[in-house]
Amino acid sequence: MTTPSHPADEAAELLPIATPARTRAALRALIRPDRGLALTGVGVLVAATAVGLLVQPLLGRIVDIVADGRPAGDLTLPVVLLVAVAAVQGVTTTIGLTRIARLGETVLARLRERFVERALDLPADRLERAGAGDLTARVTGDVARVAEAVRSALPEMARSVLAILLTLGALALLDVRFLLAALLAVPVQLLTARWYVARALTLYADQRVANGAQQQQLLETIGGAVTVRGHRLEEQHTERGAGRSRKAVELTMRSVHLVLGFYGRLHIAEYIGLAAVLIAGFWLVRDGAVSIGTATAAALYFHSLFGPVNAALVLLDDAQSAAAGLARLVGVTDLARPGTGKAGPAGGARPSPVPPQRTGPRREASRAAVAVDAVSHAYGPGRPVLHEVSLTLRPGEHVALVGTSGAGKSTLARIVVGVQQPTAGTVTAPGDPEDPSVVLVTQEVHVFTGALAEDLRLARPDATEADLRRALSTVHALDWAEALPDGLDTVVGEGGHRLDPARAQQLALARLVLADPALAVLDEATAEAGSAGARVLERSAEAALAGRTALIVAHRLTQAVAADRVVVLEAGRVVESGPHEELRDADGPYAALWRAWSGSRTAPHP
Amino acid sequence: MGADTAGRGVIRRAVAGQRRDVAVGSLLGACHQTGEALVPVLIGLIVDRAVVRPDGGALAIWLVVLAVVYTLLSYGFRFGARAGERAAEQAAHQLRLDVLRRVLAPHGGAEAGRPPGALVNVATEDARRVGAVNMALTLGIAAVVGVVAGAVLLLRASLPLGLLVLVGAPVLMALGHFLARPLEHRSEAEQEQAAHASGVAADLVAGVRVLKGLRAERAAVDRYRATSQASREANVRAARAAALQTGLMLTLTGSFIALVALVGGRLVLSGSIGLGALVSAVGLALFLPGPIGMLAWVGAELAKGRASAARIADVLAAPGETAGGTAEPAAPAPGELRLNGLGHAGLDGLDLTVRPGEHLGIVVTDPADAQSLLHCLARRRDPERGSVELDGVPLTELAPAALRSTLLVAEHDAQLFDGTLLENVTAAAPAGADPGPAMDAAAVDEVASALAGGTGGRIGERGSSLSGGQRQRVALARALAADRSVLVVHDPTTAVDAATEARIAAGIRRARTGRTTVLVTSSPALLAATDRVVLVDGGTITAEAPHEDLVRDHPVYRTAVLT
């Protein structure tokens, strides 16, 4: 009745993480199409920074004019030049930053699109092994972290690094001894950066984990508030929430401590450098090597370095965490694609030691819509689930698959659809063997965020409004759908209008109608609703399945009553097969199930 | 307006609760800002006193002064910011707990009109923003002191130059702000749209199994690409606006410095100020935009804090689902439940007595009616007409929390919580009670054997590592282990296979022997194990007899439970 659970001793097999070399290569490949943009962007920013460096010498020039007591008219030229520098610097900075942002956003979009494409293409069993959490964490946390770096860290970092390099160059131009004096600050800054980054990475990772845990705890408690109150668990959950919150606060305070310690050390570096530059100025002016104006310019240069140096160093950990996020994204985009590069269903052919799973129509199966031939499956050695199961469905036939939990019903359903590869045996399904005309609807409902109509169009992108209404009407969902605040344009899903499980499942059935497959497989598609809701859903399901071949994994035996044929699966083997009445009256496993379900010794005949 | 006043109250409490840290943070922050203002002045002084006419002794003295200033500003910053952050975090923590307590309060009502995600946002983001008001306050006070310190220093050096910088710097900031305003506005709207795009990716990945079942991977990727490109364009536009603002401020600041240099240079030449004053003025002109910009930022933070505080106040003041009721049920409660002409929503005049110790089945043909009945029994709603009585006392007179310690309504969609299987089963159980019988009755032993770690295995957030049927069984075991005098269960086995369901039917009977138990369900297996079944059709009771009799004699009942 379930998607297979992991064996007890096997940890989830996480998706790969790219090596630093591989990440760099992938990054280069992502940037390559926009090389021009990158070069001009950086070039313009270099020009902007270089022009900006004329400010201090011009101010120095003014100091010299004043110190020499020259006429006031001499001030005009440097002042006009200062204004011109300001204007040029403003324009070039705007252009450079815009280009860099365009580059960053384009590369980011390329990366996240490639990631989503590859993630949705992963074979189902690979996804099962990895667990949904890993992928979700990457698509939310890591994409956000890289995006954040692209948006705020990248431009700031680019400007700061350029400013530092060019300012140091300018100091050297004034007099190389000013540069040497300024460089006295560098060892302290480097040590500080190393000290900081080593601690920041783990601390921030812990902090993210703690914030995530707090968020999850609150969501669980608040989402389950009715249960909490009903069971008198208020104290327990307040305590839990308080504990998570305290933990998050404590970690935040620790990182505050760290950042402040970092700045404290940088202040020391600032002082050392500034004092050294002033002392150098004192000597050089005394020896007549430079003018007072030059000494002033040098001091102002160094003072203007504080901002960029602090910015660049504090961005180091953003850059590091973005690099870690990038490696986790590239790890997925780098995965070998199944099949021949065509993004398709997970059942696509791919080289593997497993015998070919999907064969073209074969002679003995030519009259069958579906032929399952001697299919066996095991989730790892010693965990067999199916034993040589063979099953044929005639075109249009509705077959109900029943049996106790763990009998292998869901596994068989997934194999028939092709989202799971069997260990042995073959399945022939209707349609092109590469792209069979099959749809699986399970009890796992997911309403995609966005307009209701857009959710439905996932099944058929070119569906017209009339098609959508027809599909909804088929599954008896049109009335409530039209009654939503904005009708079919109502935003549903996370953060939108919430649909109860029964309606969400009707939506899934409407998608099935739109996809219009020859074979539909329903895996307990009515289980999540209450019993009264289940009846409504069963009617919807019946309407959705009309005219299709259908395999229905059923726990409510009413579904078995309605089917053309019932197949009973026990411990991975077919033990009974036949119409409901026949099996009910025989003294087999199905009759026992029926008695148990209907709650009576003398089974009433509906 | 009411929410605004209440919101101010929330902020006042958040600040007052941390007043010591806020005061310390402001004081030390002021030291830092003053120090930052002094650095460029000292550079000017050192050039003037020690470099123009080289004087080693003066240089040494002034470098010591510079060191003292650096020490003050560094420590002021370090300990001031720490106090401010602590005040922010502590206040946010307190607010978070206030919101959580309000949501979990027995009368409920905080969730009305607010999805869980929105409430969590109030408890995290809004609480954080209100807490951040404390930090903003300390920085704001420090920035004001910084501006004043800069002003005093400048005016002492030269009145006209000081006035020029003091008037010019704010005008410059205002000009930049004014010119950038339309850009900021646009970029905010665009960034909102961009944030939406990242949600779409997470949503598609969360629904990947559904997409695969539907073979809609291609369609999903195409849709995501369109969203991603729209987001890219919005972000590029936003970045262009931000770049334009940066460029604009650079030009304005640069021109202002030129103006200060021109005026200052002329003043020195006319002999009214010294060379050092010019250098100081230029340095201060470069410094002042810092604290002034800080003040603008503080203003924005305070506005955000006010909006968040109003939302928090709104949640804290949300009306309860029910009101009144302070009595406690008798202990031990005999467990007689009586409906007297109960009318609520679709229910119309239900009269029913559940005897102490009876096992009663209730089949309700309309799911909405079943929901109304359960809401009234759990006192999540007070009935519109008639009453529900527990051992002769109307539920409206009982305190909801006390009522629920005696009567448990286990709803169909009851939620499990992250933790071990055993922790979930025993969550509501009396301390030290043996969970074995309840687990056996609900067939949780099978769940345990399939779970890594058995009863000690973690079941994940909301029990996500269990299947629907397994979750139902664990929730049922929890309700049975709670051992209340009266237990009402709603559809506990809809996702459980027929054989297991039959086992559970017998298990419930065994576990609840002699205690009042009501099963609101249409499962024939469960109903067969009750003493008596009541059929509620069209909002009224239309039949009342044992299951077997009703199956045999009553066509509506047969349709309701067997098809």
TrEMBL record, chain A:
The chain crosses the membrane at residues 37-59, 79-101, 161-186, 268-285, 297-316. The keyword rRNA-binding does not apply. Residues 370-596 form the ABC transporter domain. GO terms for molecular function: ABC-type oligopeptide transporter activity; ATP binding; ATP hydrolysis activity. GO terms for cellular component: plasma membrane. Residues 338-365 are annotated as: Disordered. It is found in: Cell membrane. Its main location: membrane. This is ABC transporter ATPase and permease component. It comes from Streptomyces griseus subsp. griseus (strain JCM 4626 / CBS 651.72 / NBRC 13350 / KCC S-0626 / ISP 5235).
TrEMBL record, chain B:
The keyword Transmembrane helix applies. It holds the Pfam family ABC_membrane. It is a multi-pass membrane protein. Its main location: membrane. Residues 310-563 form the ABC transporter domain. Keywords: Membrane, Transmembrane, Transmembrane helix. InterPro entries: ABC1_TM_dom (IPR011527), ABC1_TM_sf (IPR036640), ABC_transporter-like_ATP-bd (IPR003439), ABC_transporter-like_CS (IPR017871), P-loop_NTPase (IPR027417), Type_1_exporter (IPR039421). Residues 23-304 form the ABC transmembrane type-1 domain. The chain crosses the membrane at residues 22-47, 59-77, 136-155, 161-180, 247-269, 275-298. It is found in: Cell membrane. GO terms for cellular component: plasma membrane. Signal peptide: none annotated. One of its GO terms (molecular function) is ATP binding. This is ABC transporter ATPase and permease component. It comes from Streptomyces griseus subsp. griseus (strain JCM 4626 / CBS 651.72 / NBRC 13350 / KCC S-0626 / ISP 5235).
